[in-house]
Design brief:
This protein is 65% helix and 0% strand. By secondary structure, the protein is mainly α. The protein has two domains: 43 residues, Single alpha-helices involved in coiled-coils or other helix-helix interfaces (Up-down Bundle); 119 residues, AhpD-like (Up-down Bundle).
């Protein structure tokens, strides 16, 4: 049996015991996923930091948006591919495979999203996320207009930018702290 108090990043073990509301959240993860994602365990050395991270993640990835859950996961994978974030590529690659029902799409996005069979909307979204990741200061009004022309509202553009920004931050933290993805992700939706 795995010792859940062991660190998953740096040498920062989870708070022990976890506050009841955090334990409940982790229990829901086990119920829905079969495990607690290591990123949550990594943040659990400081419950305020964990709550800040999960609050932002849940709002961006699960909250109300004109972007589908799959589209948000696609952004996560493309940003993580550019940043070479092992944790997020494994975890969010699994989510893309599961949500799309297409294991090849997940692999294409991990390797080079430009080879994936994307519609015009998805291509514009991922091009914007890629540019924001590599050259955010070069984004200008024509870039945003290209998204509008592909069918995105200004609210959608806000969501694209925020999901992209979140994963740029998250990728850097995961890489810098040697955060390891859960082994279970590797076999999901294959």
């Amino acid at each position: 049996m795995t010792d859940h108090t062991l660190p998953t990043a740096l040498n920062l073990p989870m708070a022990d015991p976890l506050p009841p509301e955090t334990q409940k959240y982790f229990d829901i993860c086990v119920e829905k996923l079969g495990f607690v994602p290591n990123v949550l365990k990594a943040y659990a050395f400081d419950i305020d930091k964990l709550n800040g991270f999960t609050g932002m993640y849940n709002d961006l990835m699960l909250g109300d948006s004109g972007l589908s859950k799959l589209e948000r996961e696609m952004i996560a994978v493309v940003v993580s591919a550019i940043n070479k974030c092992f944790y997020c590529l494994v975890a969010h690659g699994a989510a893309v495979r599961q949500l799309s029902g297409n294991p090849q799409l997940g692999e294409m996005l991990v390797m080079n999203y430009r080879v994936a069979p994307l519609d015009t909307r998805q291509r514009a979204m991922l091009d914007f996320a890629a540019k924001m990741t590599t050259a955010s200061t070069e984004i200008e009004e024509p870039d945003r207009q290209h998204l509008r022309d592909a069918g995105f509202s200004d609210r959608d553009i806000w969501d694209i930018a925020n999901v992209t920004g979140f994963f740029n931050m998250s990728n850097r933290v995961a890489s810098a702290t040697a955060m390891a993805p859960n082994e279970e992700y590797h076999a999901q939706a294959r």
